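Schema walkthrough. Field components (list of strings):
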Amino acid sequence: MNNFTFENPTKLIFGKGTIAQLATEIEKERRILICFGGGSAKRNGVYQQVKEALKNHRTWEFWGIEPNPDYDTAMKAVKLARENQIDFLLAVGGGSVIDAVKFIAHAIPYEGDPWELIVDNTLVRRSTPLATVLTLPATGSEMNHRGVLSRRRTLEKVSFITPYSFPRFSILDPEVTYSLPTKQLANGVVDAFMHTMEQYMTYPDHNLLMDRWAEGLLMSLIEIGPQVLLQPHDYDTMANFMLCASMALNGFTGMGVPQDWATHRIGYELTILFGLDHAQTLAVVYPALLRVLKQHKRDKLAQYAERVWGIQFGSTDEKADAAIEKTEAFFQQMGLHTRMSQYGIPAEAVDTIYNRIQARGVSYGENLLVTPQVAREIYQNAL
Amino acid sequence: MNNFTFENPTKLIFGKGTIAQLATEIEKERRILICFGGGSAKRNGVYQQVKEALKNHRTWEFWGIEPNPDYDTAMKAVKLARENQIDFLLAVGGGSVIDAVKFIAHAIPYEGDPWELIVDNTLVRRSTPLATVLTLPATGSEMNHRGVLSRRRTLEKVSFITPYSFPRFSILDPEVTYSLPTKQLANGVVDAFMHTMEQYMTYPDHNLLMDRWAEGLLMSLIEIGPQVLLQPHDYDTMANFMLCASMALNGFTGMGVPQDWATHRIGYELTILFGLDHAQTLAVVYPALLRVLKQHKRDKLAQYAERVWGIQFGSTDEKADAAIEKTEAFFQQMGLHTRMSQYGIPAEAVDTIYNRIQARGVSYGENLLVTPQVAREIYQNAL
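Field assembly_structure (string):
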């Protein structure tokens, strides 16, 4: 087992009716900037609940954080926050709003060009306290120290990690998810599934518990995924989904294990170049990555086949093949495409993406298996 | 799923050679009281590593915290700490040393009679920062807000819970466990196993992930338990054991689920009256509790039989019976007795214990199933 440090100070407040606890969780003297996405918070009643809970606090509002949040949008919120001496940030939304708020929190007190914080995360040495009210289970951002920001001007999408990004608390009320569109629910299930896979699907490393916990997450998501689409107004169904999504990327299954993350890193290209949702990129890239790297990941694929999919017969190779097929079929069952061509992306995209990755000159994945050349092969396979 | 709040701010520093990180994890200006048990820390080299790491800090030492730590012992450390303006506590040891240090931390700044803090945990409103170097995987105290204290003078053993009990950080180096006696290793495995069972073995409650994670812990402990006894100098074996023990009682499998804890609460009697180790009490009481409450716990017992023990055939009743047998056999495999008579405890003890529990007038377990009368039945069954 590899040495590791684990820390996750975020307080989780989970269950129906818990948004009201904002009233006591945030100190009365705070000057709070509440950040929202495109307006769904008003339609599903979350806005009203938040405002009611904070009616005795001083609050400002910032609206319009888009999916794959943009640096320029975030900087508008930074300006508003600085003008009003904001000292607490509340993100009300899904992963995009939360990720943007993490960056806003760090940028507010930073005296240099805030983009520097993205390029070198260690420059984040103080920040603004932040909390979240989660409305879309998917990214796990509500309980981790990660964020992803895009800069459309320069065709960039980059992730940042700093301990200052942990929310002080996050409120998860499964009832607020009832009005989510099917597509967002499906994306959320696939996103949580992939977060688990990225920390699990490498090679056997004799970390018994982390393997079991990852497998437990995968089995739960496979069981709950179809139900989420069928009965999105069932409390227990949505509570299980919401809990799984938060637990899939909060470090709980990542202690001391080798990790992959190549699919995330090379998948960003499909968002930035072709506008695919994050989960759509994962569902397209991952089956292809597994096919291309099958020999490297074979033993772990067989373990996954046995324990998660209940495949008891066949050779290691056959189990690995079956596991890849089951994974792709699960994404399809959730309504996502698993081929680039299904999104109308032309074959020439393979070279476009290859050239961009090649220019960066970095490799991804466990043991840095995914060189630019291997990434090209994966995209070719995903056409 | 029940509403819940989850929070665990303890930082885990895990792996070989990590004791040296004490040098940077504790601020230079701190006045540190290092608390130890009976002297094993000097024999296994942990003492030397701790002192070397803290050679540029101001440190005091307190030795002699016993298993099932006693209030009077802890109060001697409180006196020493107050006399020397101690503002940081470092526990070096297993659960007993850590539990005592938690109490010492709270007692130092408390102006009333410190026993009041045990009787009413909400009186703990400030405390002394504490950290741990774990030498014995078992109780999970290194990563939770729980503690247990005994007062031999008055034949009391009581648990206390307060958020102030979370260590700031805990250092877990599997190599320090190599010299532990077999009995302590076996006790540790059973203790971690039972912590998981107390949060799991109630009734089906449709919390998919928490069930899977508890089952993952149980499967890992069943796999690793015998190896721990056979090859206690194997790094990966001990690392897996150490990680499981910490994860078994840090809240990670307890989110929104009904819990039991009756075995712990009524088992305390066997320690306080007959001096049994904590794990020995669990191994004696639990099989009897499962037999007595089989009808109430039947459906969850069958799930446990299927998923953890791989028992696929038979009726629900038969699976439940098999699960109880497997559990008792596992405790025996770890070298623990599962009957009171094997410890020479006479049949009259049943009434003695019953009278003590009856006098308290409280019931334990999910749905408060374990009334004093049921506790009597369990002890009768455990003879």
